[in-house]
């Protein structure tokens, strides 16, 4: 699948190597060398995927990711030299779709890009995949669209995968391991703790009071269930 990829990396040599690999894979590629330019280009060009370095001048990658995630569902692959679990979870919490730790090979990055694009639901609609409603939330798996009381919200691929799985069987209890299975290949660095981060983010988006959820509920010692909420 060919796409428009925006590379945001302040190392010109490194960015050029990545650009060549992605271009050889058939993608249209644009390069930015600081966070502010990356943010401006992402808004203007609307790329399919953003390869985003965390450490950049002007605005860092975390700021760019947070800002873009509030505005769009562009795929974000973050590059970082910081590999602790807390750093990875922070990126996912801010809305990154996948993480790649430095050092890495350009071939691995190209493979990650292919995987993210393949799993993206921006493909043409398929017959028989209708929208489904659970309480205040309506999910359209064809258009990758979620609304709450008719108002659209932006979900990352990982968040959407979890919500899509749970909305197929409302009130069923899913273990973290089961939900993790649905995000494999989307969040390559996923752990069961990552599921808790996704659920926390989803509650902020779909619950009236995220501290007192009525739809996305924890089941102590087991996992989570997605309920229609109070009648």
TrEMBL record:
Residues 4-117 form the Response regulatory domain. It comes from Actinoplanes campanulatus. SMART domains: REC, Trans_reg_C. InterPro entries: CheY-like_superfamily, OmpR/PhoB-type_DNA-bd, Sig_transdc_resp-reg_C-effctor, Sig_transdc_resp-reg_receiver, WalR-like, WH-like_DNA-bd_sf. The modification 4-aspartylphosphate is found at residue 53. Gene3D superfamilies: 3.40.50.2300, 6.10.250.690, Winged helix-like DNA-binding domain superfamily/Winged helix DNA-binding domain (1.10.10.10). Residues 129-228 bind DNA. The keyword Transport does not apply. The keyword ATP-binding does not apply. It comes from the Bacteria. Keywords: DNA-binding, Phosphoprotein, Transcription, Transcription regulation. PANTHER family: DNA-BINDING DUAL TRANSCRIPTIONAL REGULATOR OMPR, REGULATOR OF RPOS. This is DNA-binding response regulator.
